[in-house]
Amino acid sequence: MSSTDYNYDEQGQFFPYFVITVTALVTVPVTISWLRPSKELESTASRIESNFKPEHADLIEGQRKKQKRRERRLKRALVSVGGWLVICWMAYLMAVTARTIPKIWDPYDVLGVSRSATEKQIKSHYRKLSVMLHPDKAREDPAKNITKETINDHWVEVTKAFKALTDEEIRNNYLQYGHPDGKQSFSIGIALPKWIVTEGHGKYVLLMYALALGVLLPYTVGRWWYGIQRITREKILVASAGKLFREYDNDHTDGAVVGVLSSGEEFNEVLNGHKADNGLSKLEQKVLADGTSLSGVLAKKERQKLDDLDESRRRKVLTLLWAYLGRIELDDENLNDEKYEVAPVALRLNEAYTAIALAYSNTKAVLSAYHTSQNLIQAMRPGASPLEQLPHFTPTVAAAAEAEKSRTHMSIQEFMRIPAEKRKARVVAPGFLSASQFEDAMTVASQLPVLHVERAFFKVVGERFVTPSSLVQFVLKCRFIPPGATNVPAVKSSDLEDIDPEEGDVAAITGRKDDKSGEKPIQPPLAHAPYFARNHAPRWHVFLADSKQGKIAVPPFSFSTFDKPIIDETGKPTFNVQTMKMQFGAPPQAGSYTFVMHMICDSYVGMDTKMEVTLKVEEASKAVEMGEEDEISEPDEDTIAGQMRTLKSGGVSRSSKPRKRVAQDDESSGSDTEGDVESESETDTETDTDEE
Amino acid sequence: MWPFDAVDWLTLSIPFAYLTILIGSLAVFSNLYRKRKAAKAASLEPWFPPHIQRNVYLSLLHMENPKVPDSILKAALLRRATEDIHRIVQIREAKQAMQVLLQRGSVGDDLWQRFQRAEKEIEEELRDVVNEANAFAPNWGQVIFQSASEMAQNQRIRDRLSDILSTAPAEKEWWEKRKAEIQSNFMKELDDDEKKKADAAASKPSAKAGSDDDAVIVESGGPAEKAAKGKKKKGKH
């Protein structure tokens, strides 16, 4: 490196620019990601208003805060604050350091004319100046420190400048290169202070390089890689996923799933060190004692499983989970705290378990997994009365509310259908609920989002029939009807139809435009889950099952946002008809297929919908019956023969398409299950044929 | 000596030292890495718990004094085959799900390795059982699994049946209780009714209206009302 080619930044005037650029490259994106509000469902949804404070609300709130602290982006905050400090410091340095570039004598400046001035203008300006500045004309002014000498000097300068500018060559040099002598040699500088490369410091610089490339880089890459390797798609540890898979069984009931979940490695973080068996015996006494709400629920099998566990940690986890689900008071601050801490972890594991159950595509197992999610969010033991989701409803109150002594439970919707007076008489009594508690429960109940299916049908976009192997849409028309809602308006029949998108609108047809990018999707309020130490946005899972084989035919589609407002400004339900669509491939053989549609909300117990739907697949020949004459000898456009033909005939084959559409219009029967036809697709095709 | 005097040994040693360190460290790393990998693979948990039925069969087979009779050995072999059937069914069911999950990244590679090992193990096990069976009786190997699967099926059905039957006492108890409750409620209602009637009869002279009979008559209404009332009153007194 010869010093003649490069010069280092000895005065430290360029170094700050370099540092500022590099720092800004890191700081600005980090700051943006730090300050941007989270777009997660949980942070944007509204809440269900309730005055209800469960027992140990402080512990649950504490858990929520703990989670928030974990989510707080502390590292990003530190980096961005540090980055901005560095930037400020560098800006300060830049402002303070004097530019040492020697100022080039600029005749334009001296004369005070613009660079675009013509020679004529310059001359006239010079003449004007000469009137004012010529030593014979200008006046001395001792007050302003203008002496004869300064006037003389200034005039000499002006004359020089005028000479320079009137010389064609010099003027051009100025205009092109900014220098009277023409093009200047330019120098390359390195924006590093010279001390970095001076003798003696070189080894430290080398050391820094070695550290950065040899230690820091491999470390970060390794950490990232192994971090990814440890975590599965469902964001749980790989080891946990393995255990869940091993323990999975098609016949697991809701209670057994809880047992499986306790095998997760994630609980080691919750119960680390001595926490693993602190208070285990006390806990077991409390949970397994007769007379708790669990005694009827913990079937022999589950109890057996608990007894069979050798590992104390897992045993404690499972007992804590049961204590949480049974809402059992543990009389111990720490144990109660741990009780609320294990539930969210279990819910995360349950998601992974659901994925496993879906891979087996066994209806019963998937339902158990979903029900476990409901139970975990609502802190309810399997088989409990759904009424216990309401504030202040204990098992005894729920039993009194149900009144009818049947073995199946009453859902909240059914309870709210009972006339208000009768409802109140059942539960408002000494020993049960006070009037204000009852009011609390009723306000919560009337805000719960219960999705009510109004219509379900199959269709193929732009076709009248579902043909074999076509892409079928399963359309669900639903309304949110809160329990106990009175004067629910009747559904408009126009709302129940599904309008086909425009023919050319490929994005809409393929379902990519479903979210309506411009509009903000509507979210139902967060789940009312006073015992669950996280915010949870409810999701609805819809899937089709084959009831004969007990297998899932169409895997679940999850819906968490909707297209129309659920409540208006005053908080009243709007009863808008929401549309949910799921796409799948039709079976390759014609015939009628009966599925059982399950719609399950993952957050509330007792709001599942189950109904039979029939998919009628017609022979492909029926759909093209009339167009057959054109179609029959014509090879498909996809095949080579077809393409050859298209080339030869110059696109004649296209003419057959409109004919086919005409044929379709003449067909009279509909494609979907309920037999009515989308009039819109009809109009579309008609306008098309008119144009031809 | 010419060549050796002219060489600057110190400077020459530097590249060699560099090469030695580089190659040496790479060799050490690869060695350690392989060892660790092998150890990890060896320490993978087996998919299935120890095969008790097989162990029982083998211990019986190797008992020398006194020799175990053939019938017992055959029974033990059948038990072993039944357990194998359970395992192979489990493996077959899990395989498809496992492949889907592995593809999506929902389970780790470790699990897949364990699974494949279990699969191979079960294949070996089946072959072994067939050989053993053929040693007892020619061609038994071809049907032993058929009988074993029937046994497994039978066992499963029995388990389920006993599961269902075991809920019977609880159901019965609940129903008995419910029945008793209904009965007592009914009896109470009857008692109440009679009591009311008695009360009504006792309080009749003082109270003009309020008895059940009156209410019925009023409901039927009409012009005959007064007469009927009068008649009734007369009749009762």
TrEMBL record, chain A:
SMART domains: DnaJ (SM00271), Sec63 (SM00973)
One GO biological process term: SRP-dependent cotranslational protein targeting to membrane
Transmembrane spans: 14-35, 74-95, 204-226
Acidic residues composition-biased segments: 626-639, 665-692
InterPro entries cross-referenced by the UniProt entry: C2_domain_sf, DnaJ_domain, Ig_E-set, J_dom_sf, Sec63-dom
Residue ranges occupied by any J domain in the UniProt entry: 106-178
SUPFAM superfamilies for this protein: Chaperone J-domain, E set domains, Sec63 N-terminal domain-like
PANTHER family noted in UniProt: SEC63 DOMAIN-CONTAINING, TRANSLOCATION PROTEIN SEC63 HOMOLOG
Organism: Lojkania enalia
Region (Disordered): 624-692
Localization per Swiss-Prot or TrEMBL: Endoplasmic reticulum membrane
One MF term in the entry's GO annotations: protein transmembrane transporter activity
Entry's Gene Ontology cellular component terms: Sec62/Sec63 complex
Key words, A-Z: Chaperone, Endoplasmic reticulum, Membrane, Protein transport, Transmembrane, Transmembrane helix, Transport
Protein name, entry field: DnaJ-domain-containing protein
Annotated membrane topology: Multi-pass membrane protein
From TrEMBL, chain B:
InterPro entries found in the cross-reference section: Sec66
TM helices/strands, residue ranges: 12-33
Domain of life of the native organism: Eukaryota
Renumbered residue ranges of the record's region Disordered: 186-237
Coiled-coil ranges from the UniProt annotation: none
One GO CC term on file: Sec62/Sec63 complex
Biased composition (Low complexity): 200-209
GO biological process, one term: post-translational protein targeting to membrane, translocation
Keywords: Membrane, Transmembrane, Transmembrane helix
PANTHER family noted in UniProt: TRANSLOCATION PROTEIN SEC66
Annotated protein name in UniProt: Translocation protein-like protein sec66
